[in-house]
Amino acid sequence: MGDERIHPTARIHPSAIIGHDVIIGPHVKVHEFTTVRNRAVLATGVSVGFNCEVTHAYVGEGTVLGRRIGLNRTLVGVDAHLSSSVTSPSSTSATT
Known about the structure:
Mean pLDDT: 90
Largest sheet: 5 strands, parallel
Distance between the termini: 37 Å
Low-confidence stretches: 91-96
Strand order of the largest sheet: 1-4-7-10-13
Number of strands: 13
Structural class: mainly beta
Shape: globular
Helix content: under 10%
Number of helices: 0
Order of helices and strands: EEEEEEEEEEEEE
């Protein structure tokens, strides 16, 4: 039986670290050396780039996170695009 937390159409690089308490939606891509943990949710069609860390965050549908993005306790809206080297402090929200 499969893991119901991770949609079967999601593509996760073997070097990515995925916590036991996250939810990953359909058609999500998680690239190499990325960590997703602490009840993070990646909605449909999210792309998480190289060497990102998503912790206790909600990432909205169709959002693209470039390389070296750090999200902690953050809400990211639908179809947002964060290009590279962005870090959110624990109380910041980024929405579109």
